[in-house]
């Protein structure tokens, strides 16, 4: 999948190109985006106003995956964009590694949100009545600890501090947990366990 950038802000385009090491195409006309097929399209929020729902619908018709980046990100806007079919939402000025992570996650067919928004979304999930112990029986005791903390919306860094281990170790336990429970990510784990 190729990556395409569109923005009404030349500074954002420059930042995104640098983050992606210029391995992307840049478009300067919104109507020309509607002809693109099977690509990851990064677009800033203000460039798709006033009708983001129309823009997303048109871009999604051609099996594109859209990442909306916003100069002033907002959790409620994030939920709305994901609901409308965006594959990701984040800060337009986020660090390079977040942009690369977002593109890679979306390329893999998953939804990407800024980590703080993922935690907020997890905390909004209503608890299930099912017995968590039965679901977690295949996990080691440490994986179970990590899974329960992830379910509560803690970040890898927060869990690392709480358990006195490195964030990298938390990530390894999380990945093992996802594989054993047949889920793709933190949100899917939270949905399973809440």
UniProtKB/TrEMBL annotation:
<feature type="domain" description="HTH luxR-type">
    <location>
        <begin position="132"/>
        <end position="194"/>
    </location>
</feature>
<dbReference type="Pfam" id="PF00196">
    <property type="entry name" value="GerE"/>
</dbReference>
<keyword id="KW-0238">DNA-binding</keyword>
<dbReference type="GO" id="GO:0003677">
    <property type="term" value="F:DNA binding"/>
</dbReference>
<keyword id="KW-0805">Transcription regulation</keyword>
<dbReference type="GO" id="GO:0006355">
    <property type="term" value="P:regulation of DNA-templated transcription"/>
</dbReference>
<protein>
    <recommendedName>
        <fullName>HTH luxR-type domain-containing protein</fullName>
    </recommendedName>
</protein>
<dbReference type="InterPro" id="IPR016032">
    <property type="entry name" value="Sig_transdc_resp-reg_C-effctor"/>
</dbReference>
<dbReference type="InterPro" id="IPR000792">
    <property type="entry name" value="Tscrpt_reg_LuxR_C"/>
</dbReference>
<keyword id="KW-0804">Transcription</keyword>
């Amino acid at each position: 999948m190729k990556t395409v950038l569109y923005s009404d802000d030349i500074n954002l385009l420059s930042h995104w190109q640098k983050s992606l090491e210029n391995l992307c195409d840049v478009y300067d006309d919104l109507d020309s985006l509607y002809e693109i097929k099977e690509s990851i399209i990064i677009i800033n929020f203000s460039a798709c106003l006033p009708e983001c729902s129309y823009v997303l619908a048109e871009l999604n018709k051609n099996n594109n995956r859209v990442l909306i980046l916003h100069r002033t990100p907002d959790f409620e806007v994030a939920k709305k964009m994901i609901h409308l079919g965006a594959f990701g939402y984040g800060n337009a000025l986020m660090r390079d590694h977040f942009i690369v992570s977002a593109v890679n996650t979306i390329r893999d067919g998953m939804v990407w949100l800024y980590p703080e928004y993922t935690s907020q979304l997890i905390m909004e999930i209503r608890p299930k009545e099912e017995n968590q112990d039965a679901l977690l029986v295949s996990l080691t005791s440490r994986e179970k600890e990590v899974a329960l903390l992830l379910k509560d919306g803690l970040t890898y860094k927060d869990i690392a501090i709480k358990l006195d281990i490195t964030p990298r170790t938390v990530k390894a336990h999380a990945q093992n947990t996802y594989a054993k429970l047949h889920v793709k990510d933190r949100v899917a784990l939270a949905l399973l366990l809440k």
